[in-house]
Amino acid sequence: MLVENILLEREIAYTAGFFDGEGCVSICKCVVENQPYRILIQLTNTNKLVMDWIHSKIGGSIRTLKHRHGNWRTTYVLTLTARDKMLWFMDLVYPFCIVKKSQMDVAREFLSIPKYSRSNRRLELQEQMKALNWRFRKKESVVNEQRVEHVNN
Question: What is the pLDDT of residues 64-103, one digit of tens each?
C-alpha cells in the first residue's frame, strides 16, 4: 500500500505547512564519483511526537541530534533522499506550500537531469538553490531584527 493512500487532505496540508516552516530543500555536494551533487529534503523539529507522526505518514529516516549545550533540546531530523520518495513528497505538498515552492521547482529540475549527464546545469541549479535558501534566511533574519526593535521600543 502506498503511503499517500492513507493521508487525508488535512494531513497533507498540515505536513505541507510544517515543511514550509520547518523544512529544507537543498542541493548538497557529495563525494560519490559521477554524482557530485544530490538533493536533500529535511524536516527538523524538537517535538518527537510530531516528527514520529510525520515519519509514519511520509517515510524517510529520522536521526536524533543531542546538543552539547545543556539547555538545548534534542532535535529530530527527518530526511528524504530516495529520488522517487522526494518526487512523491514534493507532488504531495506543493499545492499547499507557499515558501518552499521555488526550492521545489529547482529540485524537480535537478532531478530531471539524467544521472550521468555531464551538463553544468547541476552546478547552476546548486547555486540557484543556495541563493534561494540564503534569501529566505536573510528575510527571516530581517523579520527577527524588526521584532526585536518593536519589542525594545
Answer: 998 777 788 999 999 999 999 999 999 999 999 999 999 9
Place of cell 529516516: 61
What are the tens digits of pLDDT across the range 41-63? Answer: 999 999 999 999 999 999 999 99
| C-beta atoms surrounding 129 within 10 Å | 21
**96 in Cβ contact with 86 (< 8 Å):** no
Query: What is the SS3 assignment for the chain?
Result: CCHHHHCCHHHHHHHHHHHHHHEEEEEEECCCCCCCEEEEEEEEECCHHHHHHHHHHHCCEEEEECCCCCCCCCEEEEEECCHHHHHHHHHHHHHHCCCCHHHHHHHHHHHHCCCCCCCCHHHHHHHHHHHHHHHHHHHHHHHHHHHHHHHHC
Tell if the pTM clears 0.85, that is, is over it. Answer: no
